[in-house]
């Protein structure tokens, strides 16, 4: 970077332990023209420091910096700024395609006559392999070893590619499989709260910031690290030195006071916060937590809340530095000098919170008395649908009517899972009062609607928090000592977020009780929450499908969208880890867990939840006993080395990757084929056909599933044609390095409902004008052969959920030119622009339904070569009878940089052309 212009005379030095750092002093900037910035939210102080440090008169100007100061008066801004995070974090599902793109960019750079060495991360990048382990084996001491062996057998090609990337690219590190979940590894080890870097011969200190290719990157906000999820394509641009173009955000202050009551957990708190903020409406905004109530929460509790920012819709959920930040950095093994630097730097910059800290200025606020939080679940299909634990059974009875009244499935994805027999005709009613049992072949028990068939302690949200994991262990201990047993139809699993978790559970003697309840270690990684729950036992799956049962899962995760956890499970509930254990004992969602017996003790007496629920004091005392700094020092001493399996992975290739032609995991994507040094003009959309009509809350899981691949689906057919056996299909998530699989999986979720094809679930559509019904992929390919453009219509919150770039990449590769929706979730809108797909929003209260659109229409959108950010354009809909209607649409290309990306055909094309031109000029 070039030396900052320092218009506000704030460049100064900070000495800590005899070491000198260059910093950009916010208090000095306030004295020198930025009046009032000490009243900014802490999160905006981080953005302000970033702009001061990168002021160059071009990408960051003095007026950009003044706009942050003006925010204090207006509490919002329409100013676009260029933000440069310090580093990038990836997990392997989203990271593999990002590295594939970088490898493809090296090939393309070479084709353009430029130096492929130019394609190299310019900031630190860490990729944590955490999304590939699946729960094939469970409930036995050997489950972990067996699952690891299967993981390496399935993912050998991907791991070879990542080992090549680790050696081929600068500033790129890989944390091997079996270490933990990327967000927990980030929290426990990678994040530093204050980052340091040598720049032009001087050592700079500044706030630790990042973007990540997983939406739950926000978890590290609990450590006062500003970070959020972006799509892989945006992360790649950040890696390659491109600033993130963003509007100065609104910041919603969330004030906490009081303390949690006895019997509640951090999970109950986060589900309450999620519901409140989703109702408030914080999409695209920062949320910052403040108030004396923060002192009643541990940093791990704060990280649990921050993790769920995607679920409440915010860009981030930020917590400032305070005394507990210092406690956490110390206990997790950070160097003492770093800890001293964090304390000194944060206090100097006015970023250190105490209970006496004056409340910052916020755009808007809401507050919560922690003492009002009650034990809760969220489900059956959205994280924000919180239900009090006392009401969970009655709420399920209401929910089952809607679930069973859903559409029949005619999608090719569902054939292997029981086909149409799994679903009732649209409008069918379920009996809310009786759940008849159905015999399971060879077993003495029956299965009914509402039975819990998966109970999983999983996901970064909770496994980073010792209080809820110790609580789960104590519930298991008390249950085991009383002689209780988990119901035999429940698939149980424990997948911690780091190896430290099993260390402390074993140290205090709780792991043996979890094992006795079936919660043996199955792997370190994001398992059930990402859809890697593995298959249910065959006889249980058969009973569910043959009898159209609404089976349930209870998981300690953050995502419970339709079709995500397991194809056999239609109702999914988020819960604290101790409640996961308790529901495994109860075995059903149809009983009130707070009042009904969990089973009989050794003397034949009923045991209730209150009998095995630990007190807050029990949990706190055991947490203090369980965890030591030495555990973190030991586990992270050689974190990039990996076990013998990782060390045995072969590395091949040089500056560019030697793409193996036989690979079905990693293939050279077609994005840059035929690309010239200058972009082609954008063409208007003329007489486009409608590929799909969707209603509200279509998630990125709906658009680009991560779970299992069905043999009869287009992706399954492709793999079979390439001699891949069904047992080796793995998952969509694991095959994200192969565009052929992923474009076939686009809009292929077994629960997606294309409203063009009424009463049907799955990725099907009608090809027009002949009206033939076929898989969406097949229709898209037929339209491409015919030279026909495509559009997609949707309702509100299109693209909610994971920061899944394949939801945009697949859309682009299917030939979709524009998505027209009532509203977009933040990351997916950005991803669409980044892939050259135009996001458009209805105006004037229009919806595709109010316009009478059925899918038989054609759509024309002129003027695309001369677009401006957020302008209104006119589209023409031509109906089947030949009549037309003009509709006004808002262009959701929000900034000038985004417009440049769109005009180049995508952000990667824009970056690649710039780097190629720089290389050619240097030559």
From TrEMBL:
Source organism superkingdom: Bacteria
Catalytic activity annotation: citrate = D-threo-isocitrate; (2S,3R)-3-hydroxybutane-1,2,3-tricarboxylate = 2-methyl-cis-aconitate + H2O
UniProt GO BP: tricarboxylic acid cycle
Cofactor(s) required for function per UniProt: [4Fe-4S] cluster
Keywords: 4Fe-4S, Iron, Iron-sulfur, Lyase, Metal-binding, RNA-binding, Tricarboxylic acid cycle
EC number: 4.2.1.3
Pathways involved: Organic acid metabolism; propanoate degradation; Carbohydrate metabolism; tricarboxylic acid cycle; isocitrate from oxaloacetate: step 2/2
InterPro entries to which the protein is assigned, alphabetical: AcnA_IRP_Swivel, Acnase/IPM_dHydase_lsu_aba_1/3, Acoase/IPM_deHydtase_lsu_aba, Aconitase/3IPM_dehydase_swvl, Aconitase/IRP2, Aconitase_4Fe-4S_BS, Aconitase_4Fe-4S_dom, AconitaseA/IPMdHydase_ssu_swvl
Domain spans labelled Aconitase A/isopropylmalate dehydratase small subunit swivel: 717-843
Pfam families reported for this sequence: Aconitase, Aconitase_C
Domain Aconitase/3-isopropylmalate dehydratase large subunit alpha/beta/alpha: 75-587
Gene Ontology MF annotations: 2-methylisocitrate dehydratase activity; 4 iron, 4 sulfur cluster binding; aconitate hydratase activity; metal ion binding; RNA binding
Job of this protein: Catalyzes the isomerization of citrate to isocitrate via cis-aconitate.
Family the entry assigns: Belongs to the aconitase/IPM isomerase family.
NCBIfam families the record matches: aconitase_1, PRK09277.1, PRK12881.1
Protein name (database record): Aconitate hydratase
């Amino acid at each position: 970077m070039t030396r900052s212009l320092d218009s506000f005379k704030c460049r100064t030095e900070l000495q800590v332990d005899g070491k000198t750092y260059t910093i950009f002093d916010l208090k000095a900037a306030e004295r020198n023209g930025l009046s009032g910035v000490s009243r900014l939210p802490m999160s905006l102080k981080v953005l302000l420091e970033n702009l001061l440090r990168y002021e160059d008169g071009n990408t960051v100007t003095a007026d950009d910096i003044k706009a942050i100061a003006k925010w204090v008066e207006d509490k919002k801004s329409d100013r676009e700024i260029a933000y440069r995070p310090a580093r990038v974090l990836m997990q392997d599902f989203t990271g593999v395609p990002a590295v594939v793109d970088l490898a493809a960019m090296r090939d393309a750079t070479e084709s353009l006559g430029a130096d492929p060495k130019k394609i190299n991360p310019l900031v630190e990048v860490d990729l944590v392999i955490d999304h590939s382990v699946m729960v094939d084996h469970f409930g036995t001491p050997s489950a972990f070893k067996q699952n690891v062996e299967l993981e390496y057998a399935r993912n050998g090609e991907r791991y070879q590619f990542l080992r090549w990337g680790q050696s081929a690219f600068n500033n790129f590190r890989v944390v091997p499989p079996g270490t933990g979940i990327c967000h927990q590894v980030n929290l426990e080890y990678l994040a530093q709260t204050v980052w340091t870097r040598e720049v032009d011969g001087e050592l700079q200190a500044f706030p630790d910031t990042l973007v990540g290719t997983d939406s739950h990157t926000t978890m590290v906000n609990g450590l006062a690290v500003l970070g959020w999820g972006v799509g892989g394509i945006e992360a790649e641009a950040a890696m390659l030195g491109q600033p993130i173009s963003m509007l100065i955000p609104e910041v919603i202050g969330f004030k906490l006071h009081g303390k949690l009551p006895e019997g509640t957990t951090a999970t109950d708190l986060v589900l309450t916060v999620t519901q409140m903020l989703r109702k408030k409406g914080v999409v695209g905004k920062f949320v910052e937590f403040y108030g004396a109530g923060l002192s009643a929460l541990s940093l791990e509790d704060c990280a649990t809340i921050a993790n769920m920012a995607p679920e409440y819709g915010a860009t981030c959920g930020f917590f400032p530095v305070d005394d507990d930040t210092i406690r956490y950095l110390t206990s997790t093994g950070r160097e003492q000098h770093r800890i001293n630097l964090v304390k000194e730097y944060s206090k100097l910059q006015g970023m250190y919170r105490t209970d006496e800290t004056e409340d910052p200025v916020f755009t808007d606020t809401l507050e919560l008395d922690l003492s009002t939080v009650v034990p809760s679940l969220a489900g059956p299909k959205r994280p924000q649908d919180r239900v009090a634990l006392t009401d969970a059974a009655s709420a399920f009875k209401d929910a089952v009517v809607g679930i069973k009244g859903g559409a029949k499935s005619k999608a090719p994805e569902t054939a292997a899972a029981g086909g149409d027999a799994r679903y009732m005709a649209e409008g069918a009613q379920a009996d809310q009062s009786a759940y008849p049992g159905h015999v399971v072949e060879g077993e003495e028990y029956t299965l009914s609607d509402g039975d819990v068939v998966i109970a999983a302690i999983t996901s970064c949200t909770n496994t980073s928090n010792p209080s809820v994991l110790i609580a789960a262990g104590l519930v298991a201990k008390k249950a085991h000592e009383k002689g209780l047993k988990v119901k035999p139809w429940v698939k149980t699993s424990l997948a911690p977020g780091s190896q430290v978790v099993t260390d402390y559970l074993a140290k205090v003697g709780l792991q043996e009780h979890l094992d006795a309840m079936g919660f043996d270690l199955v792997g370190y990684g994001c398992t059930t929450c990402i859809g890697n729950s593995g298959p249910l036992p065959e006889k249980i799956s058969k009973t569910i499908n043959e009898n159209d049962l609404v089976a349930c899962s209870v998981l300690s995760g953050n995502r419970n969208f339709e079709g995500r956890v397991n194809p056999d499970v239609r109702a999914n509930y988020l819960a604290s880890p101790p409640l996961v254990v308790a529901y495994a004992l109860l075995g059903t969602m149809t009983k009130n867990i707070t009042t009904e017996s969990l089973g009989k003790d050794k003397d034949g007496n009923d045991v209730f939840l209150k009998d095995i629920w630990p007190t807050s004091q029990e949990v706190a005392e055991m947490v203090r006993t369980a965890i030591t700094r030495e555990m973190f020092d030991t586990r992270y001493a050689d974190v990039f080395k990996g076990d013998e399996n990782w060390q045995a992975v072969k590395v091949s290739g040089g500056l560019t990757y030697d793409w193996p032609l036989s690979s079905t995991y990693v293939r050279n994507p077609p994005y840059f084929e035929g690309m010239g040094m200058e972009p082609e003009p954008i063409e208007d959309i003329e007489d486009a056909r409608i590929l799909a009509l969707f209603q509200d809350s279509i998630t990125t899981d709906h658009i680009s599933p991560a779970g299992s691949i069905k043999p009869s689906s287009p992706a399954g057919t492709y793999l079979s044609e390439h001699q891949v056996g069904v047992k080796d299909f793995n998952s969509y998530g694991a095959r994200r390095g192969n565009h052929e699989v992923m474009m076939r999986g686009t809009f292929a979720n077994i629960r997606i409902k294309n409203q063009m094809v009424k009463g049907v679930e799955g990725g099907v559509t009608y090809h027009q004008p002949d009206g033939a019904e076929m898989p969406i992929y097949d229709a898209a390919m037929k339209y491409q052969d015919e030279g026909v453009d495509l559009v997609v219509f949707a309702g509100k919150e299109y693209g909610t959920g994971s920061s899944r770039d394949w939801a945009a990449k697949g859309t682009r590769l299917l030939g979709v030119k524009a998505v027209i929706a009532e509203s977009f979730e933040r990351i997916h809108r950005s991803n669409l622009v980044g892939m050259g797909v135009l996001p458009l929003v209805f105006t004037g209260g229009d919806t595709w339904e109010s316009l009478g659109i059925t899918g038989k229409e054609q759509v024309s959108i002129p003027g695309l070569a001369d677009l401006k950010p957020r302008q209104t354009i006119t589209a023409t809909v031509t109906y089947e009878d030949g009549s037309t209607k003009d509709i006004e649409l808002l262009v959701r290309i929000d900034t000038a940089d985004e417009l440049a990306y769109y005009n180049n055909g995508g952000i990667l094309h824009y970056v690649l052309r710039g780097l190629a031109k720089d290389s050619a000029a240097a030559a």
